[in-house]
Write a structure and sequence with these properties.
Layout (H helix, E strand, L loop, with lengths): L1 H33 L2 H33 L5 H33 L5 H41 L1
């Protein structure tokens, strides 16, 4: 019973985390291209509030993924296991500090070189996490395809 529940929770939490990061990234690009400083501040503040959704969803996805994977260390499971520490470190060491710094700079009206340098780092790190999480989603679909085909056939 527990593995069935985890098989439902894991992809939902992972996809929610992926969509949240994708929303942060696209909102940032859009507001930088088209928005005012006030709009940039609103997006940067919204991203900080969005951490309330992002952090738990990624923690749940990671915990349930490791529980579901067990000791398997080959194939798509191994690839997902190798990516996860990098995704987590990228988020904790780069993306969260950048989000906090950018919101503070925007709140102070400081849209100078430091703001845009940090913004560039955040966009690169965010794009990296989107790509890595996309690969994890792809591998998750590949791993469940066989189970889904067996259920349909039965």
């Amino acid at each position: 019973m527990l593995p069935q529940i985890l098989r439902r929770i894991h992809p939902a939490a992972g996809f929610l985390g992926f969509l949240t990061i994708l929303t942060f990234w696209t909102s940032t690009v859009a507001v930088e291209a088209l928005g005012s400083h006030q709009a940039i501040l609103a997006v940067k503040t919204g991203i900080l509030w969005g951490m309330i959704v992002l952090i738990p969803s990624l923690a749940v996805a990671g915990a349930t993924g490791f529980k579901l994977a067990g000791p398997i260390s080959k194939g798509p499971v191994a690839a997902k296991k190798r990516r996860m520490p990098f995704i987590a470190a990228n988020g904790i060491l780069i993306l969260i500090p950048c989000a906090v710094a950018l919101q503070r700079l925007a709140a102070a009206g400081d849209f100078g070189a430091i703001f845009y340098a940090v913004q560039a780092v955040e966009l690169i790190a965010g794009a990296t996490n989107i790509a890595l999480m996309g690969l994890n989603i792809r591998d998750g679909f590949r791993m469940t395809r066989g189970r889904l085909a067996a259920r349909v056939a039965a």
